[in-house]
Amino acid sequence: MITGNFEYHQPGSVPEAVALLSDLGDEARVIAGGHSLIPTMKLRLAMPEHLIDLQGISELKNIAVSGSDVRIGAMTTQAELITSEQLLKAAPIIRETALQIADPQVRYMGTIGGNVANGDPGNDMPALMQCLDATFVLQGPDGERLVQAREFYEAAYFTARDDLEILTEVRFSACAGGFSYGKQKRKIGDYATAAAAVLLTKSADGSCTHASVALTNLADTPLYCADASALLQSKGVNDASIAEAVESAMEQIEPVDDNRGPAEFKRHAAAIILTRTIQEAWSRA
Ligand SMILES: Cc1cc2nc3c(=O)[nH]c(=O)nc-3n(C[C@H](O)[C@H](O)[C@H](O)COP(=O)(O)OP(=O)(O)OC[C@H]3O[C@@H](n4cnc5c(N)ncnc54)[C@H](O)[C@@H]3O)c2cc1C
What we know:
Number of domains: 3
Radius of gyration: 19 Å
Distance between the termini: 47 Å
Strand content: 25-35%
Bound molecules: flavin-adenine dinucleotide
Strand order of the largest sheet: 4-5-10-6-7
CATH class of the largest domain: Alpha Beta
Largest sheet: 5 strands, antiparallel
Number of helices: 12
Helix content: 25-40%
Shape: globular
Structural class: alpha+beta
CATH architecture of the largest domain: 2-Layer Sandwich
């Protein structure tokens, strides 16, 4: 349980970090909170020769809400997401989700950037970002580019981020209306057996004007459920449309047998969690 040897680098700015990544090449990795990377290094599943620590880059640690525009710096910790009052007003689903990640010790160190960049299908923030239709800002040797969260995840631990790029910020629009992040897990502090992020907006006449549904840990990547979302929006939210939306979302999932249970159990848990999460979001809309 001891990591391999590595050289430690602490850049003070994003350009400096990008330059280090370019110079050191394949043998270098950035480290944020270290709560996914260090366990992997202790198991020797990752043995980077150079670690580029982002902790000293103050420009990556900020939460900015301006009108409906929300921007969160990559090095913002999960604990800071939970305690931000402006974020609670702009997007309360962030606090609800962050509170269900691991335990306080992990949340004090784990960052939003590390959680979404890692590509671990068990992480909770990627599906949330897809539900919010967030944009990720990537900074590399050729400058900045933007990638939609719904297009970022390619397979487990494979994303649209180039090895030489750093994820610097996530951006999304403030979301009024009903929200819920529901998570089935074996015990406190565990990754999801199945989890769902749901946003629903209700108009004065009771119809659904916006719906967005995404799922965690039910496939190699987070899943944005476009058909289920469209269905709730076009048919309104009632017992029949919820059942139809859940059935549609279940067609997308590809759970596998593991120590969280057999695939069939996960299918069962996912359908229940998604049903309850839609119901809760609608009751708050
Ligand atoms: C016991 C335990 C339980 C956990 N339970 C959960 C859970 O229930 N839900 C959940 O979502 N997470 C869980 N986690 C993971 C935790 O939230 C991690 O902190 C998070 O996934 C990674 O964030 P980090 O800042 O620690 O990143 P790190 O571990 O430092 O990095 C993770 C990976 O992302 C890369 N990376 C980091 N930041 C950037 C960046 N800005 N740009 C480009 N690449 C970057 C690193 O190179 C590395 O490959 C758990 C962790 C532990 C130890």
